[in-house]
Amino acid sequence: MAEKLNKDAVYRAAKTKDKDYFINDGGGLFLMVKTNGTKLWHFIFTCEGKRKRLSLGIYPDTTLEVARRKSEEARTQIADGIDPAEVRDQAKQIKQLSKQNQARIKEGLPSIDSFADVTFGFYRKR
Questions:
Q1: What Gene3D superfamilies does its record include (predicted)?
Q2: CA dihedral in degrees (18, 60, 58, 22; nearest 10)?
């Protein structure tokens, strides 16, 4: 499988077209050029028989080197039998739960799923 097919200049020079299109960098890493001029890094992979796409960032904020490193990390996770999309979703859920817990603590309520929260909910239902 060919990797690192292009130099940064190719991605920098990419122009918009009538439709969204991809520029392949090899190994499942692509730069998607949208009709509005936005350029997005995507890593396309197959996990458990399903084809999935993982967003890696906006070009040029996410450089070619960073996108390649992120795609390599995702490939390593896939080789270990881990779905990188699920890992990202779980991290997002943990961050949301933490934010909700901080808001609850400021309001004087117990953290979600804590012993105090469970018992408080039990007594409120009665």
A1: Integrase, DNA-binding domain (3.30.160.390)
A2: 40
Is the pTM for the entire model greater than 0.70? yes
Torsion of CA 85, 49, 23, 41, to 10 degrees: 0
Rounded Cα distance between 23 and 5, Å, is 10
Strands 50-59 and 29-33: unpaired
Is the previous residue joined to 60 through a cis bond, with omega within 30 degrees of 0? yes
Q: Are residues 64 and 93 in the same domain?
A: no
Can you give the residue range of the structural domain that contains 112? 83-126
Number of domains in the chain: 2
Same domain flag for 59 and 90: no
- Regarding whether 56 and 15 lie in a shared domain, the answer is yes
